[in-house]
């Protein structure tokens, strides 16, 4: 089955670096498609004001346009798409997602670090928990059943994170729930030039 390119996939290229500037060929290479295939999608995002087209001599780069606040909605949808794609292929992550889902109303869960790409045998899962609700029993059950260590960092407010940890999470993350809160937090820091 041929996978179609979507605007969400193109926006998804910017999830780990909101300041990223990509050439058309670079975007095409990352998506595994010819640049002629993705050009209409990139141009439609420019027309919508989600991307900015920067032309220098004979080079054209594309970057996110944070002057258009709709860019956040595109990033949120791209984050959700990234999560759904990972849950399709990673059984262990899907089980953890299901185990934590009863707590989605009061806590925010973000996987970060090496487990974002692939959960390796012998490696642990880094989990950021934002909220007060205690989930220790569920995590302990998961660790015992699946023999997978979870390194949990729990805070009551996302603002309490250190800048170093924020940068680590920003570069490599999967947001389980309350995606908008996390994306807008990252975007706010980016707009203040704190994620450089």
Notes on the structure:
This protein has a 4-stranded mixed beta sheet with strand order 6-5-4-7. The chain has a 3-stranded antiparallel beta sheet with strand order 1-3-2. The protein has 8 helices and 7 strands, in the order H-E-H-H-E-E-H-H-E-E-H-E-H-E-H. The longest helix has 19 residues, at 71-89. The radius of gyration is 18 Å and the shape is globular. It is of the alpha+beta class and 196 residues long.
Describe the protein's topology.
Blueprint: H1 7-12, E1 22-23, H2 24-31, H3 35-48, E2 51-56, E3 59-64, H4 71-89, H5 91-100, E4 108-112, E5 125-130, H6 136-146, E6 150-155, H7 163-171, E7 173-175, H8 179-191
Parallel strand pairs: 5-6
Antiparallel strand pairs: 1-3, 2-3, 4-5, 4-7
Helix pairs in contact: 2-3, 4-5, 4-8, 5-6
Summarize the structure.
With 196 residues, the protein is an alpha+beta fold. It is 46% helix and 17% strand. The protein has helices at residues 7-12, 24-31, 35-48, 71-89, 91-100, 136-146, 163-171, 179-191, and strands at 22-23, 51-56, 59-64, 108-112, 125-130, 150-155, 173-175.
Number of helices: 8
Mean pLDDT: 93
Derived structural class: alpha+beta
Q: Report the sheet with the most strands, covering strand number, pairing sense and barrel closure.
A: 4 strands, mixed
Number of separate strands: 7
Strand content: 15-25%
Could you give the order of strands across the largest sheet?
6-5-4-7
Uncertain segments are: none
The shape, in one word, is globular
H/E series, N to C?
HEHHEEHHEEHEHEH
For the record, give the distance between the C-alpha atoms at the N and C termini, rounded to a whole number: 39 Å
Radius of gyration: 18 Å
Helix content: 40-55%
């Amino acid at each position: 089955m041929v996978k179609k390119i979507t605007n969400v996939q193109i926006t998804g290229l910017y999830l780990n670096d909101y300041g990223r500037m990509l050439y058309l060929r670079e975007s095409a290479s990352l998506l595994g498609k010819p640049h002629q295939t993705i050009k209409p999608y990139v141009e439609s995002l420019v027309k919508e004001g989600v991307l900015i087209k920067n032309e220098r001599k004979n080079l054209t780069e594309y970057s996110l346009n944070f002057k258009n606040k709709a860019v956040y909605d595109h990033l949120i949808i791209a984050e959700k798409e990234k999560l759904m794609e990972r849950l399709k292929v990673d059984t262990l992550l899907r089980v953890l997602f299901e185990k934590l889902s009863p707590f989605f109303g009061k806590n925010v869960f973000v996987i970060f670090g090496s487990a974002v790409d692939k959960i390796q045998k012998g490696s642990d899962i880094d989990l950021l928990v934002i909220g007060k609700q205690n989930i220790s029993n569920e995590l302990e059950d998961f660790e015992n059943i699946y023999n997978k260590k979870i390194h949990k960092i729990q805070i009551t407010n996302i603002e309490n994170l250190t800048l170093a940890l924020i940068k680590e999470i920003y570069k490599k993350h999967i947001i389980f729930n309350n995606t908008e809160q996390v994306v807008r937090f990252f975007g706010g820091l980016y707009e203040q030039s704190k994620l450089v």
